[in-house]
Amino acid sequence: MNNLGSPKIDLTKFLSAQSVHTVNDETVDPIKLMNNVSMVSMKLNSDNVDEVKIMTTEGYSKEERIKFIQKIRDRVKSDVFELSTCNRVLYVGFEVNCETLEKSVLEATGLEVAPFDRYSGIDVWRQLVKVCSGLDSFILGELQVMSQFRGSVSLHRKNGLLSDMNGVFFDHVVAANRMLRKEFGFNQTTESMLNLATTAIEELISTEKDLTSVVLGFGGMGIKAVETILDFGQTDITVVTRNPEVSKARNPGIASKVRMMSFDDWYTNPGQPSLIISTIRNIDPTYTHERPLPAVSSTVMDFSWPPSIDSDGVNENQTLYSMDYWIKVAHKAGVEWDYSSTVHQSDVLLTDIQEKFMNALTDRTQSKFRAFIYKTLESLSEEWKSTEYVDENDNQMAPFSREIATWICNQSRPFGSDELEQVIRATERTIDPNLIGRVVTDVTDAMLHINGKSTLPEATS
Description:
Rossmann fold, Beta Polymerase, domain 2, alpha/beta, 20 helices
């Protein structure tokens, strides 16, 4: 009989397995998931302001927004993610193309056409990272939009609008956003449009030491407005909301430091505020020519989108800083940042992050396989350390096992058990020959056992 040589060990089959994620015991191919994503979006400009006003959910209650998203989801017959910010609306669909997604959105909003921008596959991920990082905002690098994005993802998940499997896509967006902000230094930039009002508030305080303030609305932006005023040492603050008792429950700590009242009560008894900040979310302006703000001499700052105060909704003794004003100021801030240069640099950085992201998706199986081999050898090293051949002060076994594991993981071809033995015996470490013999036997047996498997759940799940 011919000598067939030592048994062959071929672990390459585990490295060529399809890359998968496991979410709640379900497996998903991340590349397939990426390729089946589509997005339609509009960034506010003078040509699409009417369509954006109709589509935005900024003025919706939580229940109204969920119902609206569900309406689109029912038409698409798959998961849909919706996000509205002060300057954009966007919809992400899974297992659906842009044409079907756009048609479903138009049907749900009652529009016949809208000037959407369309994105598919990896371009959806790339654009969402730009949006979340503040690269596509009124204020370059603002943090507020990331908070809105995370809040929107949470709302979709909690209300069954987004499966855990599709939610993985947005987890990757958040991770990439963190990398970009850290590398680009955006963590030190403006947090939201409210920060642009800091100088104006400081000027008011310099002329009026004890500022009397009114904040309209107590959502996320309203709470932030109150915190900002408190940070200036001002305590005379009234918060006006639709339901004061419900609003207090949103943030009891902040609510305990202010007066709370309803809109009707404030309208009849407005006091004498020097500063009025509006953060109301309504589809149509709350204060107009027909129903103007109370006639009190005040600086008025509107941070609502759509705007909550019409230009003719203020009195002659009031100065209005509207959303148009903040947008103009934001663009000036962009010039100070050297906007075009910053965006170009961030595009280069985003491309690098994108490459790392895609490599992470495709290398996932190989990474898990390598981790499995290292863990297997580490377990064997614990057994070797307990033998009579190892002194209690000898710490060689763990690093020796890692050296063997590294050699095994670096093999891109089948190898013989005799070749594996030669590698182990060729070590320059001072190890008892009897123990070397056991190492050869243990490692060879372990690799032959793994080699006999058709799949390796421990490494590929």
